[in-house]
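step: validate -> pass
step: tokenize input -> pass
step: predict -> running
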Amino acid sequence: MVYIALEDKNDILIAILKIEQMKQSVILKDAIPFIQWFSFMIIIALLIDYILHQFQLEGFGRYLGILGTLVIISSFIYSLRKRKLINWGSPKGHLQSHEYLAWGGSILILVHAGIHFNALLPWLAVFMMLITVASGLVGKFLLKKSNETLQEKRKELLAKGITMNDAEKNVFFDTITVDLMKKWRVVHLPITFLFGVLALMHIITLIIFSK
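step: predict -> pass
step: emit ->
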């Protein structure tokens, strides 16, 4: 009869858990909502653009750019609430409004871009807007969900008798991933500022050359 040492059993158990968790890693499991929301934004913009062309309302896209800009600007009420410059409403409610208004305004600007933009500056603004939305979705979906997934993995490992040291080794790469995503604001804030500058330059250019 063959006996397996306790250490060997522990190593086998860790190996099995690693295989299972590779199928449900932080990136694979929690990137799906991020991809869905970003793709959904593009699809809706293309659909609106298609409808406008079908009804020969392409010129209406110019006004969607203005509307989209105003919607995005209104989303920054959250920043005022966060910095306590205003005291009405809950921070959580303003955050949700910020996320949905920025997402919806981006759709309108994408429609505007697809119909009217024929110069480098506006396309740069749209490119920065897409990066801004993507970095915001990292905070909304990837960071929050991935952190929850990481904590759940630790608890599952400890519940199955894995030592804390081995559990930390098992989730090492997921921990690094989450730590890197925690720095999303370092990217989100300056890119948002740059998008605002490029958008403002585009608006000023339109005003100057439309005269």
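step: describe -> The first helix runs from residue 6 to 22.
step: cleanup -> pass
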